Structures are given as structure tokens and as C-alpha cells.
Amino acid sequence: MKIDLSRAYLLALAAAFTSTTLAQSFHPGNLVVLRLGNGSESLVKSGNRVFLDQYTTSGALIDSVAVPDNGTNALIISGTSTAEGGLTRSADRTMLAFAGYCTNRGSVSGPLANQTATNVPRGIATVDVSGNYSLVEACTNLYSGNNIRCAATDGTNNFWTAGTPEGTYYLHPPGAPVNVQTNAGANTIYVKIINGTLCFSTQKGTSGLYGFSTGGLPNAAAAPNLLFATGGSSQPQGFDLNPSHTLAYVADSRVSGGGIQKWTNDGRAWSLAYTLNTGAGALAVAVDFSGTVPIIYATTGESATNRLVCFIDTNSAATAMLLATAGANQWFKGLDFAPDLGPVILAQPQSQVVTNGSDASFSITASSSYALSYQWEMNGLNLNGQTTTTLTLTNLSATDQGTYQIIVANQYGSVTSAPAVLTVITELPGTIPVTGDGTVVPELNLGALSVGTSYTVTAVPGPGQQFAGWTGSITTLSPTLTFVMSPGFELTANFVPSPYVLTSGTYSGLFSPTNPNEVQPGTAGSFTISVTPRGTYSGFLSMSSRRYAFSGELNSQGRASKSFPGNPGPALSLVLRMGAGNQADQVFGSLASGTWVANLSGNKAVFNARTNSAPYAAGYTLVFHGQDGVPASPAGDGFGTVRVTTGGQVFFAGMLADGTPVSQSAFVSGEGLWPLYLSLYAGKGLLFGWLGFTNQADDDLTGPVTWIKPPVITARYYPKGFTNDLQVAGSAYVRPAASPFEILSLTNGTISFAGGELSAAFTNSITLGPRSHVTNSSPNRLSLSFSLSTGVFQGIVLDPSTRTLLPFGGAVLQKLDTGYGLLRGAHQTSEVVIEP
Hints:
Mean pLDDT: 89
CATH architecture of the largest domain: 6 Propeller
Number of helices: 1
Number of domains: 5
């Protein structure tokens, strides 16, 4: 790409030698806001006048620089484009840079961005600390027919731009522009230099904040490097990072859902901490990182008459303080701190740990266009004669321990370095020491490590402990730490008792929406979690015939959150909370995906056969009562057998009232609760509910369950499907052990058949003889037999109306001295009842 030197180069030279002083000097520490519009004319897409307003950090307007809107130095910006109007301070802090369109205001009709660069060159301008405006570049073929949005400079003759669709250019006038990136940020919004590194934001492809794989300030094509993605629907614009690139704030311009995103970097990855709410999104941010708490200044996202606000970022609840409001027909856009001529520290002194009798040195790198002076301090007191960039200390002892800083000054101001702590120890320890109950893996001998080599260690808390952080040469709360060995390196792993008493073991339970009407195969299911004494966990969710595995580590409060693919569908978000106190054997939480949220609860498997036998250990029979008088649902009763072992395991097998065989194994809780969940019909149906072992007068096992069958055209029974809420009744079952081996306490009884496809109900009289042999006492044909080992029965009966033989089956409930089951017709089932 070439530049039109006949115009742009001459304009740059004219600007360099005939710059115009338009305002009083800027003052260090103040804010500068790029404002569009003079208030008397509407904001229009064909361009408005540009002003640089200087504010104090308390919101007092000091003065303004008015950028020319006609003549050879004219530069205007669209009054309707949200993404234009970025403003940045140079890396050396001596000037402000911005970008726009080199044409007289009112000279074009229609959007400025639609004009070709030949007709309306894209311009880069600066304003220095004295308020001198310069148009340093006017390009006739950059971003032609599209937007130029922002510019950045290192303070010399090097510039970088942001725009669309060509992304970022490097310019060194009068040299030809060089395109350094398009593939990651063709829709590049903002560009800024942070501690010698060029970063940019984009709203195309993966929206987010980027740097370059080469680092530094690229002057040739370079591969972009995604620092973090700000979210699929986000609209990132201005941003700021601290010098160490561990804390970032990004303006999200969405009026609804936007604000200022706060991102943190733990040395391994960036993560979103929270979003500060401005009430209307944000266009630009500038952050004061000099104190212990960042102070954030931002322009808000309203379209004109927006605000300049401030946050003191103590936590996510920090609220916006209003500093200024743009007037009618005015719009606050880009924002940065005022330029100044004071010195800049480029490299800070670093803390050190050394052994007694050794030497140490601290050094800094500073930049200034003017002569610098230096003064080192220890614990706030000047060190006589220490007035160079390097402080060397020899033959150190404990009296040399302390905090060291340097004050760097020139004729325009001074700056104090970050504190560097010197620690003097008697000798290097052997293995990494710990405080509290815990270990460090692998076990390293610090005295045997190679200087300059990288090592990784992990702090592992003991039972009932939590990791409280590393101290020494490195301070961090991350359990896993990578460090480079250096002379005098010291490290301690610290553990403290956890306020949460972890109960390890295996937990199982159910999850479902709070509203029972929302229980569906894709929103309800079961889970199992195993928790170790160290707080790590692993488990799986069962839902819609799929199993989703997960694992992680509980925090010191017994909580954890996990996200994993839905496979298919939206991602699943799992939140766990282990119970405490009288809920110590329980687990709670939630599972969310897309538009639904399910509550999760479960219980620990507390029984074992040797030391804590389950009081519910026995055999049982149960019945799922059908629905009389509802043709679309089974009238028959499902049934099954249950066996609970002394170890608390539950084994269930049975048949539902549409003839579907079912089985499950689970654990019973200490309170006698059994989580029943079965995925049915290829994952499109379910059987779901909590059942309880009760030992009541009328039952030993009871509870409500939901049974969902989807429409299945090929199904023999109930092809249209149904959703039934059923009541389970169960009884302990004891096999008859002595003559006459009666399964029920009745000699003469009846067996009746009703509902379903039967045109009329009918009843047969029966007699139970020795070994529970059944004799049919009615003329209607019937055959019936009991299984003494399980308590179920089966048989065949003749339908008197159709003269058709139909099979039936069921289970006895010994506590009620009855039996229930189902009769299988052609397409429906009928209820079977045995009673005295």
C-alpha cells in the first residue's frame, strides 16, 4: 500500500513545522476527553468538530483544545459512529494521539466512512503537553470507504492505527504504511500501547483483547495473540491494563448488558472477575493503577449527551460517580490521562531474598527527554551517595533488610518506583518448608536446584486444611506455582485449618426444576459424586440416556462450580455446595443450561455391611398405582421388587404399566431416601422421584414419581404418550418359611380386573391352599401362580366379553394383605387387584 506523498507528506511537514498552539498546557494527573460537537450544531454522520476537554479527576473542566475543522490541518470525526473517536496517550506520556478524516466540516454529504480515502484522506493527529495540535499524517488509501477509529504512538515518529476492514497499520512518516494485522481484528476498534506492548480490541470473529505473538511494537506483519475473549455478544472498545499485564479493564459499549469488564490474570490464564455497571455501557476507560485500589475513569455508552464517570474498584458492587455530562449535541468519546513531561520508569526494581554475607543490587530503567536525577531510599530515608540507576549492597546482614525505592526526577516532575523488599536469611532451606498441615509435591531441595531453571510445585493441604498461599520470594494464592530458581530464592507453603469440615464419601441424588410441571427428560436426572478427604471430587450426571462426567476441587467453603459441553445443546453449568452441621451428609446445588435451571440435592452413602448396617436391609415389593378412568393413560398398576443390602445398596427390578421392563441400582441415605431415576424410551422419557423407606402401619415404602412417555407411533401400548404423576406403595416382603407357606393371610379371596380395554369389569373367586397354590372357584377360566421367593405373581385369564385369553402379572403387598398388577390387552392395560 502506498501513500499520496504529494498531499500527505506535505501536510505532515507543514504540521511538524507550523503546529498551532490551541490551549493552555495540560497538567499531570488530569483527564482528557475527546468530545464531538460544539453544542450548537446537530451531531451528523458527515462529521463534527473535535475538542479535547481537560478535566480534573474530580470532574472540574479546566479548558479545551479545539481541533481545526477547515483548512489544510482540518480533522473531523463522524457524529453518529459509536466506534470512532478513540484517544490514547503516547508511551512516553508526552502527547495524545487520535484519528479522523482530513476534510472541511460540511464538505461532504452522507457518512464520512463511506468516502474514499482519495477524496477524504484518513488522518492521524497529536496534541502535545503544551496544547500544540499537529496533523502528522493524511493517507489517501487507508481504510478507504470505511472507518478509521483510533491511533497510538510511542511518542516518536511511530504510529499504529485501528479501523476496518484492514485492522492495524504501522506508520513511520513519510514511509509507506505497513499492515500489521487483519486476520484477528479486521473490525479493530481501539489500539493502545501498554508498557511497551501494542494491544488492540476487536468486535469481529472472536471479540476480545489481543496482543501480538512477537510482543512489543510490531513494524511488520505479525500474528495476533488473543489475550482473552470478552464474550460472543460483547462490544469491546477502549481498554487499559496495569504495567505487569495481570489486571485489565475493557469498555463494553452495549447500552444493555455492557459496562466495564474487569479481567484478572493469575499467571496461567485470564478470567472475568465481574462487570462494573455504568447503566449504559462504556466507550473508553483510563485507569489509575498507582494505588492499592484501581480508580477507573470511563465515558459511558449513550448516543450523545453521555457521561464521564469514575469507579473506585473495591468490589463488584462499586457504583459509578458522575464527574461530567456532555451537553446537548455533544458526545464524549475517547479518554486518557493528560500528557506530561515528567520521567517515566520503564523497568521497576525487583524484590530479592539473599543469604547472610552475600551481595545484592537493585536497578531501574527510566525515560525522559530531559536530564534525570536519582535518589535511592531505604524504608523512606535517603541513602547517602546512592544517586545512580543501580544500587549495590555488599556483605549483607539482617540490618540491611527493608524496603528500597528510588525517586527519579527531571525539571518537570518526579516519580517514585515501586517498592522492592530485601530479605536476608541465614541460609537456604533444604526442602520447601511448610506451615500448618500439608505437603509440597514434588519434594524439591532448594539448595540443589539449578539457578535459571524453571520448576513447578503444588501445595497439597492435609485433611481439614486449606492452602493459605505461598510466601517468600513469590507471594500468590495459586496452589500450583512455577518459578525460576535464583540466588537467595526462598519459598514457604502455608496451610491453615479449613472453616469447612469436609465429609468425604460418595453422594447420590436427583436434580429437577423447582416447578414440577417443568420436569422433562432434558431437565431432570440423577447424579453421583465421590469426594476425597483432600476436597477433590469426581462424578457424573445422568440425563436423557447420556452421562456427563465432571471433576474438580472444592474450595475452603465446600463449594465448586463447573462448566462442560452439553453434547448436544448449550453448555451445562454445575454449582455444588456440600452441606455442613446437621446437613453434613448432604450435597446441594444447581444445574443450568440455556433457558432452564434445575435444583440439585443428594445424600451421602453412609452405610456399610461391617460397621454400620442399613436398618432398611430387607426385601420389598412395590406398586405404581395406575390412573382409573383416563383412557390415554394406563389403568394397570406397574410393579416390582426391591432388595436393600446391609451396605445400603438398593436393587430394583420391575415392569411399568405399559409393559416396559425397568431396573436400577442406587444407595439409600441415612434418612431412608432412595433417588429413583430411569431414562426411558431412548432418552425421551423418564421415571423420576424420591422414595422413602417408612415402616408405617400401611406401607414400608412410599413416594410420588413422575412417569413421562413420549409419543412413539410404533409402540403397542399408548403410542400418543403421556405424563403421569403416580403414587408408589410398597411393603416389606418376607418369604413364607413354614407350612402352609401362605404368601398372603387369606384362604378365600377374589381377583378383579377393571379399566383399560375391558368392556366390563369382572371378578373371579380364588382359594389359596398349601404353598400358596391357587384354585379358581369361578367358571371363568383363570390360571394364577405366586413366586414365594420374590412376591410377584403371574397368570392368564379369559375375558368373558371377548372370550380372549389375556396375560397378567403383579406383586403382593403383604402389609396390606393384597396384590396389585396389570392385565395386558391389545393396546391398553387394565388394573388387577387381589384382596380378601
